[in-house]
Amino acid sequence: METRTQQLDEALQQQTATADVLKVISRSTFDLQVVLDTLVESAVRLSRADKGGIVQLLDGEFRYVSTHGYPPSFRAYVEANPVPALAAGRGSAVGRVVEERRIVQIEDVITDPEYRVALIAEAGGFRTVLAAPLMREGDLVGVFVMTRVEQHPF
Question: How many helices (H) and strands (E) does the chain have?
Fold first, then answer.
């Protein structure tokens, strides 16, 4: 019975988040930033993440176009230090998504031997990362990133 109640609660949360995003879309004159921000905020809540963002490939660089929960210092750092698409590699969650074109989880950025962007983790204040590719017609156009402050898998 407890499992069923939990499933119903999760379904209700998903429906509420979907309704929130649809309300924003219908109320706005399609302000994309408002829609992206609402989407990220809903995803953070549903996934029980602490923070999240959307990284988009713009002019050959990966840039955050929406964030939720990160301190202003993180946003300033990532805006000043975009990641060139050609430099993406296994050293970051976004780089792994670029290489593998699949969902990637780094359970602990501190102990992961391949993780190389400790300054981003420090600025963002996170330990666990979940990153999912955003695809359009087979091409990677961005990455949805969710993070947790504590080391705890998604």
Answer: 5, 6
Query: Dihedral of the CA atoms 18, 38, 55, 63 (nearest 10)?
Result: 160
Whole-model pTM: value is 0.80
Q: Quick one: DSSP state of residue 76?
A: H
Paired strand residues for 146: 52, 130
- Within 10 A of 70 (CB to CB), how many other CB atoms are there? 20
3 state SS of 86 = helix
- Report d(CA 45, CA 18) in Å as an integer: 12
Residue carrying structure tokens 């407890």: 2
- The pLDDT tens digits for 7-48 are 666 766 666 666 665 565 566 567 889 989 999 999 999 999
Which domains does the chain carry?
Answer: 2-148 (3.30.450.40)
Q: State the Cα–Cα distance between residues 47 and 75, nearest whole angstrom.
A: 21
5 C-beta neighbours (distance < 10 Å), count: 9
